[in-house]
Fold this protein.
Amino acid sequence: EAFESLLRFAENRTSSLFETAYRPMAKEAAEPVKELFTDISLYILGAETTVESAVLRFFDSLFPLVYSRLINPGITDLSEDYTECLRLTRQDINPFGHYSKNMVTELSKSLWASRMLSQALSLGIEVINTTEHAALTKECSRALVKMQYCPHCQGLTLIRPCIGYCLNVMRGCLASVSELDAQWREYISTLEYLTNEMAASHDLEVALSGMWNSINEAILHAQLNGPQLSATVDKVCGQPRQQEGNLSSASIVPVKEVTEAQTLVMAHASLNNKRREFINYMKRSRTFYASIAERLCDGDLVMRDSSTCWNGEDVV
């Protein structure tokens, strides 16, 4: 839920950039923006895709819009063939400079850690669900009955098992489950590593909240290099049909028009706080599979505050 909330925030912020600074192409840019954040969401959830392909596909879709709405706002005929030519040309002429590659680099680091954490959490749920119902062997069932009910045959209904006896029975019953101890400890250590990575150089909030600025800088870079880009595109794709007469200045967005960055304010507790609370909780379960017998033999099951208890054979 925290991932989804962050993605929605970043998507809304990116959409607002087009609506305020690049209104002539805002409507057409809505679909590429939506696809970009859908791809990012799928990547975090473990889909077979890459951050690089998602980002570059976005800029491939963005270039025909930037070229026809901002660099050459007089273009009226944007056929499918011409649009496809612009998409393919984007890969060769690199109209967005280093900003597109920088965006790939920044997002790849933070999204990788988020993807790994998401997959790790799914694995943890699977392990816990698998071990929720331990299969009891016949020997285990006999030992449990002997421990819990044999003293009743002697009329000793209030006598409970000795703690040492209980531990021996439970450890025997749960031997297969306790074998998960080493792997579970390693799993918790991996979660710690991933949460630390996400809080350091792989901070997802910083990367996502900065996407709108990277896209804005990329568009400004393309506008500044408009004449050179137009000359190259004309050679490769030909000259599209232009609208006659003077263009209305209202249809051309000033190059320096930039939306001011807003402070990243989340309605919910930040993802960092959620991660910190979660890993502190998980660290307390580090010895869970090694200490199940102790947990089960703690409390009302055994006799702790009395010198009299059942040892499996007699009252001692």
About this structure: Residues 81 and 237 are 9 Å apart (CA to CA). The radius of gyration is 31 Å.
